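Structural prep section.
Before we set up the soaks we want a predicted structure of the protein with magnesium ion in place, mainly to decide which crystallisation condition to try first. Input record follows.
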Amino acid sequence: MTRVALLGATGSIGRQALEVVEANPVLELVAAASGSTPVDGLAPLTQVGGDLTELLERAQPDVVLNAVVGFAGLPATLWTLERGVTLALANKESLVAAGELALAARERGGGLLLPVDSEHSALFQCLEGRRTDELDSLVLTASGGPFRGWTRDRLADVTPEQALRHPTWKMGRKITVDSATLANKGLELIEAHFLFGLPYDRISVVIQPTSVVHGLARFRDGAALAHLGAPDMRVPISFALTYPDRAPTPVPPLELAGTTLEFEEPDLEAFPLLRLAREAGERGGSYPCVFNAANEAAVESFLAGRLSFLGVAGAVEHALAEADGAAARDLEELTVVDAAARRSVEVAA
Ligand code: MG
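Run finished without errors. Recording the tokens verbatim:
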């Protein structure tokens, strides 16, 4: 039996994870937590809000599935990596904001870090059993979101309702807006850098509108391995929870006849958040943390009607310009950086 703790149990990933756990007799849910929605009866141990590491301490899980949204997931990520407990990571923001701290904690803990983000799960699978020196580069795919092909001018009047309509993936509100601005792909670029230890100039992003190709690894001999599948999060969730096995899921095998595979360059002028994320990643230090915090605050303001769609990127650019980017030595210092970036968005909005 694998003892699973599920953090963020009532969100989109959380609900699909419950389905995966229920369908698999080797998985046992020992703890469940949410930010504010009640989770009574979902697992023997439950918690709503507060310090989730207290719940993990009591539950002693074999695997923690961290599906908390945003920077709030960071303490649980660090707790899990520090103790060598397997981390199934759907909370990409914690790796973006605290990449160095997380990798140092994994080094000390010696446990597994398994990405649940579909693109990173795909790349992890393409790279399994390969040495880093055999790798040439990685390609992250993006659907392009609901505004693919739109000019910057046309994006000026986008409403939250429009941004919340994603063409291929059904997800929570924050990540759906991030997909519409391409900030999500920016976060994923930084996530891939830390997960796979590759410099940014060897990780590229390409638009693949049907979301069938999830990732591609190019090797030094000219071969490229791609991961294909239906856009269904139950696949990467199941992969991470049952690794190194591949358990059956209700997702049907991929049908190739009638499947369209087209690729195009992302438009960095219309979607500057992808460019800003790459710059923040390349500058390093706490700039990725600033990018993440400013984006979280700006998305919240956009959803509340206080900021325009294009204003999200503007607010993030402003916060990055204001920050000094000095590296943080611990969670406490990072929390200060995070709070300052959020404030700078609120002042600007
Ligand atoms: Mg993803």
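Observations: The CA atoms of residues 138 and 217 lie 5 Å apart.
Flagged for discussion at group meeting.
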